[in-house]
Amino acid sequence: MKRNKQIDVKGALVLSSTFHFLYSCARACILPFLTLYLRYLGLTPSMTGLLMSTKHLISLVWSPLASFLSKHYDKRRAVITGSLVCSAGAALILLLIPSTGVETLTSHCNISHLSVSPTEELIDYVRVVGSVMPTTHTTIVSQSAAHESSPTETTSDTVSSAVSMSKATTYTLQLQHSNNVTTQWTQVNVSVANHSIGGERNSLESHHGASNTSPTVWRVSRSAEKEKQQQREMDEARLEFLGNLKVMDVQHQLFFMLLIMVSIWELMAAPLEWTVDDGLYEYLDFVDASDRYGSTGVWGLLGAVCGVSGAGLLVSHLDCLIGSHTPRSAVHFYSYAAVTTLAVPVVAFLPLYLNKKRSRSTGLFKALQLVRGDIRALLCAATAFLMGLAGSAVDDFLLWQMQDHGSSELHMGLSLAVALLSRAAFPLLSGRVSKLLSPGRVLLVGTVCLALQCLYYSFLWGPWAAIPVQVLSCFSSGALWWAVQVQCEDVATPGTERSVRRVYQALSLDLGAGLGSMAGGFVVHRFGVSVLFRGVAVILLLWCLFLPLLQWKAPRQRRINYSRLLAADTSEVSESESEQETDWLEKAMEDDEQ
After folding, report:
1. What are phi and psi of 292, to 5 degrees?
2. Which domains does the chain have, with CATH numbers?
3. pLDDT tens, 236-294?
4. I want to staple 161 with a disulfide (CB 3.0 to 4.6 A). Which of 144, 271, 299, 386 is the partner?
């Protein structure tokens, strides 16, 4: 007989914790700083909000569907490996997309220590645009002689020194001057001469004039002229597709390219978290160790702390430009790809188990019915939705606010690391908090703390100003998810706890965050970041006024906790039985006496 394979629960938890640590570290290297990179590329706040909203909504739909398909076809390990590799590749492809203007290279970075002048950067950018545009004959604008004038005058002189010839191709570059409050747009017309085409045409004309008596030469010259004309028409069609401002300007072209790439990136990365989570839980449930399932979440938070602080520290010590044209913010993408690659070998040893008896679709539908049938659960879901909406505003535009007040990547990374550490510390305080406050009151306290944080963010005054208030994340995000966990245990039936928890996560992290990013982008574009944070704070405080009243009016439905009944002490049962026997004897003796 074959010996049964011994199952190492501790080893499985170590492998799973290692994977969660590495993957959370990789995500923290890039996702908190992604909106900063979109700002560097030249996107407006509304475009940035739409991109982040698309990312959240794709995750809302694709994560459960991809998890179900990978389970149905028993391809979990292949899906996890492919998701890691493809998401790392898609993130690196984003670096190939150029920015919309010259000012994005230096508008949010200190370039006083660099030897490259703004004039040289303008010439380099024109050279890059000329190389990207698919034209076969392009003359690069030469740099003019240095003058003892201001940078603005030098730039205008350099641009005006470009040679203008007949039928020269005219490019329009949009320069974005980013200030703290206003945004100005300047159009610079650069005429690029087409010397080679003109020279060849002149040579053909002179050759034709010298040999009028040769019909063969005339036919050859006419065919060559037709080929040149067709080539010019093809080049103009390509230029019209890439850079013609009559139909769509460069900024909108950039937005749609980024929209496609971010969508592909999210399609690659979204299935990973749910698939790993399902495989681990079913494995632990198979060996009757599902009570140790929640220990991996702490390692995920610690990995995020290491990722966000390490990436911020590394990028802050680099120059504004790495090489000739690569910005230092590209290091976030390289770090994400490197740490994701480190997580690939761990996938081969991940503890995954396939339990075909469990149905994911029916579990989610049943969880939705349970949440809809309980008024207190609906109030908790509405609070989670609002917290996700507010959290998306903080995640997307807090770093913009810090950058406008002089913060570097070091300040941003430390600020986010303090928030994550505070959130991870709440489980240590949950025991004392549960004795003092009910889950409904804890939910209220978490909402108030997040409103105070948003109000504080709107009044930042310096680089380090955002760090002290991040300690409140212990009672905002940490308290929220603890109260959601308690609500899940209260409303869920045996076997549906994880499905109910995922319903709350989808409402908060995906649906609420998606709508919040979209609305937040338009508010920032119209009114500014400070107004966004103040508006979010007002909405949360108004909800805090209505939430206690609604909780007081809602009926409380008490459910039987079967786990406590099974864990009851036998001594208590024996005492209750002896008391019942004593009562029966006393009643019998009283009846006999009567």
Report:
1. -100, 15
2. 114-143+154-243 (no CATH), 359-555 (1.20.1250.20)
3. 655 554 455 446 788 888 999 999 999 999 999 999 999 999 888 888 888 777 777 77
4. 144
